Amino acid sequence: MRMWIDTKACPKIIKSILLSIQEGGAIKTFLILLIAGLTSFPVAAYDEIQVYDMSINQPEQFALEMHSNYVINGRKQADYNGELPPDGQLAFTGEFSYGWSKHIELGLYVPMTINTNTATTTMDYAKARVKWLNADNPKLFYGLNTEIGLVPKRHSEQLVGMELRPIIGHYTGDWLIAFNPTLELDLSGSNQMPVFAPALKITHQVLDNVQLGFEHYADFGSLDHFSSGSQQNHTTYLVSDVPLGDYRLHVGIGHGWTSPSDEWILKFILGGIPFTELLNPHHW
User: Fold this and answer.
1) Cα(221)–Cα(198) distance, rounded to whole angstroms?
2) 3-state DSSP helix/strand/coil % of the chain, to nearest 5
3) What class is the 41-283 domain?
4) Within a 13 Å sphere around the CA of 212, how many CA atoms are in the beta-carbon half?
5) CA dihedral in degrees (151, 103, 267, 75; nearest 10)?
6) 3-state secondary structure labels for all residues of 199-235
């Protein structure tokens, strides 16, 4: 793993982490660790990795999720002119959300890119989403998440992308099964045929409120002509969902099974953060 350390910042970072842990500040600790990580890796990647389940904000509730995933060992060659190969990339995305009603949630992704080689920090293009979800009966929840946004050329040849993500699942308290048969669309190119990219999550409660299981992400190619098996993208993650007080920590380590897939990926999500708490100076 390649790392660059700002030795002048180390004492302040370490001191802040230790003080935050001692004071029990979960949000502050996570933010400091992410910032420390962002200044230690060479470059950042795009977007987030997750399976949508029965989670939804309460009406009029603002919330924030922080996503971070690092490609430990991935593709090193660009697939097209201007692409940033995924190997060694770190993604850091803030996802702001608002509960419009009991069944409707609005969201906004704000990805960030840091390149320590050029000492530049870039905010990638934002992406908006609308989620409709009926989880009144957890044993059969269902919904649809729709996303649309601009995508930087270093991450995709598609300037404008759209995602239709159906949500269906089953939750008993001990078991969670969630399936997203996702369709990805290119709204700016000549090929308007959707790409089929499903995702599956199955977890089981192994300790008090601690879930352990797996997620699988696939990309079969366009609906009119699936790619051959060896050219499809298949990645499986060992995942765990752990409560941190009022917050939720999701961690996963993933392995790609085909040549287009990245070999090893690490991901984190800190969720359940009331956005208004971040604006309260007493929490800092």
Assistant:
1) 11
2) 15, 50, 35
3) mainly beta
4) 3
5) -30
6) EEEEEEEEECCEEEEEEEEEECEECCCCCCHHHCEEE
Tell which residue, 260, 275, 237, has the closest CA to residue 48: 237
Q: How far apart are CA 100 and CA 68, in angstroms?
A: 26
What is this structure's pTM?
0.80
d(CA 50, CA 68): 11
The SS3 call for residue 37 is: helix
Task: Specify whether the CB–CB gap between 162 and 135 falls below 8 A.
Answer: no
**Residue 11 C-alpha from the chain's centroid:** 30
CA of residue 210 relative to chain centroid, distance: 20
Return the ∠ at Cα 30 (arms to 14 and 35), rounded to 5°: 65
Which amino acid is located at 19 in the chain?
L
Check residue 121 and report its DSSP letter: E
Query: How many other CB atoms are there within 10 angstroms of residue 27's CB atom?
Result: 21
Give the start-to-end residue ranges of the domains of the chain: 41-283
User: Rounded to whole angstroms, how far apart are CA atoms 237 and 216?
Assistant: 6
Per-residue pLDDT in tens (0 to 9) along the chain, 284 residues: 333 333 344 444 444 434 443 444 544 544 544 444 443 333 334 568 999 999 999 999 999 999 988 888 877 777 777 666 777 777 788 899 999 999 999 999 988 765 444 455 666 778 999 999 999 999 999 999 999 988 776 667 677 889 999 999 999 989 999 999 999 988 877 777 899 999 999 999 999 889 999 999 999 999 988 989 888 999 999 999 999 887 899 999 999 999 888 899 999 999 887 766 665 555 55
Q: 151 with 160: CB under 8 angstroms?
A: yes
Query: Which pair of structure tokens corresponds to residue 118?
Result: 């050029």
Asked if residue 252 lies in contact with residue 239, where contact means CB atoms within 8 angstroms, the answer is yes
